[in-house]
Amino acid sequence: MKHPLLPLSETMHYILLALKEPLHGYAIMQAVEQMSEGTVILAAGTLYGAVENLSKHGWIAPVPGEMGRRKVYRITDDGERILAIERGRIEHLLSLYEMRG
Amino acid sequence: MRKRKWFADLLKEEKWLNDRLAEGYACRRIGSLGGYAFEPSDRKMVIRLDYQRQMSAEKYEEYKGTYADFGWTHLKGNRWGSVQYWQKPADGRDEIFSDAGSQVAFYKRLTHYALTTACLFFVYTCAIFNGNIFAALFDIKASYLTEGLWEKEGAAFWRAFLFETPFAMLRFLPAWIFGIAIVMSLYSYFHYLKRKKEYA
C-alpha cells in the first residue's frame, strides 16, 4: 500500500529538500522561503508538526553531536529514497506536460 | 484590565481574546479558572490557540522552542495534553498553521479532545450517581433527605426546606455541572467537526 504521506505535500517536499543540509527549525523556514521564492512561508505549528511527522517516519533525523537549545535535523537514507520516488513521479508528470503541450 | 470568562469552545475563546487585543490590549496572564489579565499595548498583538496531546519533556521544549523562534510568547499550557496559548506582535505572519494539512490535523486533535472530555464527564457522572444521571438531573426533590419535608406546611416547611437546601445542592449541583460540561463538550465537538470539513 502507498505510504500515507505520499505524494508529498508542498510543505513536506520543501522541508525534505531543505534538509539535504543540516538545519534547525527556524532555519528550515528561512531556507524554504528562499527556495520557493517567497511562495511557501511555513508557520510555527505547521513546521513543528511536519518535522515531528517526518522524523516519526525516519525520513529525517536529529544530527548527533549538535548541542544547544535547537535540534538540528538532516535527511536520512529513507528520506532520500522518498525523494527519489517523488522525483520519478514529478518527472513523469513533466514529460506528460511536454508531450501534451 | 481583568476579565473572567469560561469557554468550552477553544475557537470561540481565541476569537474573544483577539477581539480584546484589537481594542488595544496585550494579554499579560491567563489563569487556570477563567481569569484573563490584559494591559494596554501600543503594538497590535495576536493570540493563537493550539491543542497538543501529552508529550515528553524533551518534545515539549522543542515545541515551545520552535514557536519562540517564530516570535511567539507562551502565555499558558503544559505538556500533559492541554491548550497552548501563544501571543505575538502582529506583523503579517500571524498564523500558526500555513497549510491545509496541518490545519486539518489541528481540528482532528480538537475533536478528539472534545469527545474525550465529554466521555470522561459522562463516566464520572455515571460513577458518582450510580448510573442514574437522569434522576440526579431532574429529580431534585430526591436530593432532600429530611423525612416528611414535603408534607410540612408554612413556616415549618420553609425553615426545613431552606435549612437543607445547601446540602441538597451539594447532591444535585454536580450532576448539573457535569451535565452542562457534557453538552458543551459535544457542542464544541460538532463545531470543530464543521470547521474541519471546510478544509478536507
TrEMBL record, chain A:
Task: Please indicate which superkingdom the organism of origin belongs to.
Answer: Bacteria
Q: Name one Pfam family in it.
A: PadR
Q: Mind telling me which InterPro entries this protein's record contains?
A: Metal_resp_DNA-bind_regulator, Tscrpt_reg_PadR_N, WH-like_DNA-bd_sf, WH_DNA-bd_sf
Domain Transcription regulator PadR N-terminal per the UniProt entry, residue ranges: 19-83
* SUPFAM superfamilies registered for this protein in UniProt: Winged helix' DNA-binding domain
Family matches, as PANTHER family: PADR-FAMILY TRANSCRIPTIONAL REGULATOR (PTHR33169:SF13)
Q: What is this protein called?
A: Helix-turn-helix transcriptional regulator
The species is Cohnella ginsengisoli
Automatic annotation (TrEMBL), chain B:
Q: Where are the transmembrane segments?
A: 113-138, 168-190
Record's keyword terms, sorted: Membrane, Transmembrane, Transmembrane helix
Q: Please tell me whether the keyword Membrane is annotated for this protein.
A: yes
- For this entry, the protein name equals DUF2812 domain-containing protein
Species source reads Cohnella ginsengisoli
